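[step 3/7] inverse_fold.run input=structure_tokens len=289
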């Protein structure tokens, strides 16, 4: 079950990808299948060992194309063990709501992302998450649990403050919000409640079979009660520094001699420019993207 929509977040073979706070590895596996050079990082050593096993199984089964690579490692999101500009793509999915210093995490992600690189951030959506908190204290008052609920504009502001340029947002997993409301109502750890069991079976069937009916239902529900809020952004390129000595050269250059107006010059001054000689060049097709 992917939260990041790769039709909105293009990934090319050979892209260097960091899945930060990878958890069970769902996004890392998809990037590996798409031919990326993936690093899956999490502070949970047990989950990292499982992710490493799945990477090895995928390689053995030939699920990843030639040139793809995958590494699973433990690490601290606030102190990433990578040089600046190490990755083309960074994904952080359902992680920032757990971390007190979310601005510090964003700063680290921006540091290791190359200029022009892309980042995807997903967090629980404000409305559905607020219902979960109202129904159950145990849902969020646990060690490592959710410590904040983001409003969409608040997350976008933090992404911009970190130096990124958002280019798209959407909501995901509309079918999953009712499941978590049921979990919170009957007890977060109570998997034996019949409504919870029944809805879980529905979700598993949906994930495995992907029937058209539930796909259409989720598409309709996502804008209303989608469980996750997703932001896509890019890291802008740095402005190019002027060539060394360019200013001094310009200051030293002599001023052009004043033009001597002749009868011929005066006549041509009002003539039309040649076709294509406009001083304002058209932007390239991709300049605004």
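[step 3/7] decode complete -> sequence:
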């Amino acid at each position: 079950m992917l939260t990041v929509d790769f039709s909105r977040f293009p990934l090319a073979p050979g892209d260097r990808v960091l899945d930060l706070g990878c958890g069970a590895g769902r996004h890392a596996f998809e990037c590996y299948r798409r031919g990326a050079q993936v690093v899956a990082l999490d502070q949970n050593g047990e989950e990292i060992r499982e992710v490493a096993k799945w990477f090895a199984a995928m390689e053995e089964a030939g699920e990843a194309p030639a040139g793809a690579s995958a590494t699973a490692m433990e690490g601290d999101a606030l102190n990433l063990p990578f040089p600046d500009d190490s990755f083309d793509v960074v994904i952080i999915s359902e992680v920032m709501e757990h971390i007190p210093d979310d601005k510090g995490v964003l700063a680290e992600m921006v540091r290791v992302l190359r200029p022009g690189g892309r980042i995807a951030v997903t967090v629980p959506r404000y409305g559905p998450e607020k219902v979960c908190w109202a129904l159950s204290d145990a849902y969020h008052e646990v060690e490592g649990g959710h410590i904040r609920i983001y409003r969409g504009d608040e997350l976008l502001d933090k992404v911009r403050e970190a130096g990124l340029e958002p280019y798209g947002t959407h909501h995901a997993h509309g079918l999953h919000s009712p499941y978590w409301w049921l979990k919170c109502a009957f007890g977060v750890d109570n998997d034996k409640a019949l409504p919870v069991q029944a809805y879980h079976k529905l979700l598993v069937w949906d994930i495995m079979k992907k029937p058209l009916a539930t796909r259409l239902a989720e598409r309709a529900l996502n804008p209303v009660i989608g469980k996750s809020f997703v932001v896509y952004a890019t890291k802008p390129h740095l402005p190019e520094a002027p060539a060394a000595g360019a200013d001094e050269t310009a200051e030293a250059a002599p001023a052009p001699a004043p033009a001597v107006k002749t009868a011929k010059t005066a006549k041509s001054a009002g003539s039309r420019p040649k076709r294509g000689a406009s001083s304002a060049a058209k932007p390239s097709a991709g300049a605004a993207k």
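[step 4/7] annotate
Residues 248-289 have pLDDT under 50 and may be disordered.
The first helix runs from residue 26 to 33.
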